[in-house]
């Protein structure tokens, strides 16, 4: 009989998920694919209306896009960056108020954040009491140069964050990435190992890479880690300097697209049931089949 490649002392437990901790393990999610204009106050009002509408329709988790309060551009980041820690952000105040009033969890997309002499691309997570319970500064800045297609360098104006962000909310343990962060499977894997049920990526993928692999990346992150993945993009504005692909999507733990849309402004509502994670991991136990005797991923910040 061939000997098993697994040794008793190996600790290749699957990334465990705990269905008893979240207040809700079955709930409605809303992905608000918003139009973004040059008028920041209008964008804040519009986002609030979309969130209220989603909450009225039963959403317990609402996700906004990357850079939803101003058009995404290197010129705009320093002009409109808000100091979140000083409590001087109208965008954050609105999100906090609406999360509390409607008793919902909000993944607040991202906004340019000023902190000391730095500007970050930052996503705040709001608990149902309106408090900020997580803050993710985009870890991987989007620097791309495909001549004739797209050239963009976030690092001209933005500073990269240094921390992984996994947040325990009423609607589960959620790992946060922002757009380009989705290109890095290691980040998603570490979130899964830390017990995330859902990965949320506010994103504004551009047209060329968006058409090629925005959906592939979402489905791959979900399949690799056997969990839910949600993305939320701004609506497409072809008159803007940076044109977003759109196609906000919810993917299930077998890589199945559960809900998606095209590129217009729209809120996608869908159901999440975390028991599917357990079912899929029982069907196909990638966790115990993993060969950590020949490869391993190190969570540097945890040791
Ligand atoms: N805003 C972004 O990070 C865009 C990422 C993107 O388009 C990609 O190809 O990656």
Question: Your description of this structure?
Answer:
It is a single chain. The protein is built from seven helices and 15 strands. It is an alpha/beta fold and 303 residues long. It has a single domain (26-289), classed as Carbon-nitrogen hydrolase (Nitrilase/N-carbamoyl-D-aminoacid amidohydrolase). The strands form three sheets. Strands 1, 2, 3, 4, 5, 6 and 15 form a seven-stranded mixed sheet that branches. Strands 9-10-11-12-13-14 form a six-stranded mixed sheet, covered by helices on one side. Strands 7-8 form a two-stranded antiparallel ribbon. The two termini are 38 Å apart. The model is unreliable at 1-15 (pLDDT under 50). Ligand LYUYDEPV binds at residues 66, 142, 179-180, 183, 204-206, 209. Ligand LYUYDEPV binds next to loops. Residues 27-274 form the CN hydrolase domain. One of its GO terms (biological process) is oxaloacetate metabolic process.
How would the blueprint of this fold be written?
Elements: E1 26-33, H1 40-56, E2 59-63, H2 76-80, H3 90-102, E3 105-107, E4 111-115, E5 118-126, E6 132-137, E7 143-146, E8 150-153, E9 166-169, E10 172-176, H4 185-193, E11 198-202, H5 207-225, E12 228-232, E13 249-251, E14 257-260, E15 266-273, H6 275-283, H7 286-289
Parallel strand pairs: 1-2, 2-3, 10-11, 11-12
Antiparallel strand pairs: 1-15, 3-5, 4-5, 5-6, 7-8, 9-10, 12-13, 13-14
Protein name: CN hydrolase domain-containing protein
GO molecular function, one term: omega-amidase activity
Keywords: Hydrolase
């Amino acid at each position: 009989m061939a000997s098993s490649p697994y040794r008793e002392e190996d600790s290749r437990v699957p990334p465990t998920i705990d269905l008893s901790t979240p207040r809700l393990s079955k709930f409605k999610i809303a992905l608000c694919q918003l139009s973004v204009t040059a008028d920041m106050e209008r964008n804040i009002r519009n986002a609030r209306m979309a969130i209220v509408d989603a909450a009225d329709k039963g959403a317990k988790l609402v996700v906004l896009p990357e850079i939803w309060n101003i058009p995404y551009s290197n010129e705009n980041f320093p002009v409109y960056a808000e100091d979140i820690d000083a409590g001087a952000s109208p965008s954050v105040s609105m999100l906090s108020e609406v999360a509390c009033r409607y008793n919902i969890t909000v993944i607040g997309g991202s906004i340019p954040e000023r902190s000391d002499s730095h500007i970050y691309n930052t996503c705040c997570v709001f608990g149902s009491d309106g408090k900020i319970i997580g803050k993710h500064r985009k870890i991987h800045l989007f620097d791309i140069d495909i001549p004739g297609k797209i050239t963009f360098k976030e690092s001209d104006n933005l500073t990269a964050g240094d921390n992984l962000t996994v947040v325990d909310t009423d609607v589960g343990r959620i790992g946060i990435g922002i757009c380009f962060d989705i290109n890095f499977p290691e980040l998603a894997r570490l979130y899964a190992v830390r017990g995330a049920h859902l990965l949320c990526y506010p994103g504004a993928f551009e047209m060329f890479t968006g058409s090629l692999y925005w959906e592939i990346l979402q489905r791959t992150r979900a399949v690799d880690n056997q969990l839910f993945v949600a993305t939320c993009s701004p609506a497409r504005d072809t008159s803007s300097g940076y044109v977003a692909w759109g196609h906000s999507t919810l993917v299930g733990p077998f890589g199945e697209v559960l809900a998606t849309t095209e590129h217009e402004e729209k809120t996608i509502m869908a159901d999440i049931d975390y028991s599917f994670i357990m079912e899929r991991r029982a069907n196909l136990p990638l966790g115990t089949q993993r060969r950590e005797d020949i490869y391993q991923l190190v969570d540097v910040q945890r040791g």
